[in-house]
Write a structure and sequence with these properties.
4-stranded parallel beta sheet, 3-stranded mixed beta sheet, alpha/beta, 7 helices, globular, Glycerol-3-phosphate (1)-acyltransferase
């Protein structure tokens, strides 16, 4: 049996996690309250799927846009799978302070255990949020975890995305977006995806690609309602900040 590796923390992490991060979250909460949701699409599809599933669903999101979902979907009381790494500790504390619960595990460490726990919780009536291109990318390429979880728990995948007219775009691998105060926002629920209990192998890949495409479509739609599409990739290696990249493979360690 493998011993679980603990992340290595630095001397200043205690200060950042316990003082700086709560202050940042307070500022985020204030910013979110000032934002004005000007357009929402597909809400009726989400409600119909929840009625069919007994109020349970999986909400996949892109890493770039994880924060504002906690504001829009707060009534869904999501549990989010987060990496066991040092960076994951920051993400877990952030999400907890924003009102979401977390499970520690990702496609690179502790994923099978976290998926098992998530399946149990969904069957008990708790919704799941999944950052499907985390913890380290590549951006906008979904991993298999959400598909396997949807198959095992027999609940729908409901891709969701948001856009904003004014924001800060950080120089991170995913070009993390933070809305600016008093921004206008858009939100879109895509058509729910049901994964058959018998799905495996190539069929799982078909559903992975399906919800990846719908999530990208929703994100682009949200952006162009308010202006041009936001950059979501660091420039380099011959790739533009926006647009498809051929030949990128997703992480398939969890099967």
């Amino acid at each position: 049996m493998k011993r679980e590796r603990k992340p290595r923390y630095r001397w200043y992490d205690h200060i950042l996690l316990n003082i700086v991060l709560p202050v940042c979250v307070l500022l985020l909460r204030i910013i979110f309250l000032t934002c004005r949701l000007t357009k929402i699409e597909g809400k009726e599809m989400e409600e119909a799927a929840l009625e069919k599933s007994g109020g349970r669903a999986i909400y996949p999101v892109w890493h770039q846009r994880g924060t504002y979902h906690t504001h829009i979907l707060k009534s869904r009381r999501l549990t989010v799978m987060v990496s066991q790494s040092r960076d994951g500790e920051y993400a877990s504390r952030l999400l907890n302070l924003l009102g979401a619960r977390t499970l520690r595990g990702s496609s690179t460490r502790g994923g099978l255990s976290a998926l098992y726990q998530a399946t149990k919780m969904i069957k008990a009536g708790i919704n799941s949020g999944m950052v499907v291109d985390g913890p380290k990318g590549p951006p906008r390429v979904a991993k298999l975890g959400a598909v396997i979880l949807a198959r095992n728990a027999q609940v729908p995948i409901i891709p969701v995305a948001w856009g904003v007219d004014r924001c800060w775009i950080l120089n991170t691998w995913d070009r993390l977006i933070i809305p600016k105060p008093f921004s206008r926002t858009t939100y879109r629920y895509m058509e729910p995806i049901w994964v058959p209990r018998s799905a495996k192998g190539e069929e799982l890949e078909k559903y992975r690609k399906l919800f990846e495409d719908r999530l990208n479509e929703a994100t682009t739609w949200c952006d162009i309602q308010l202006g041009p599409e936001k950059p979501w990739r660091l420039p380099g290696e011959g790739l533009a900040e926006i647009g498809p990249a051929q030949g990128i493979k997703f992480d398939s360690e969890i099967v």
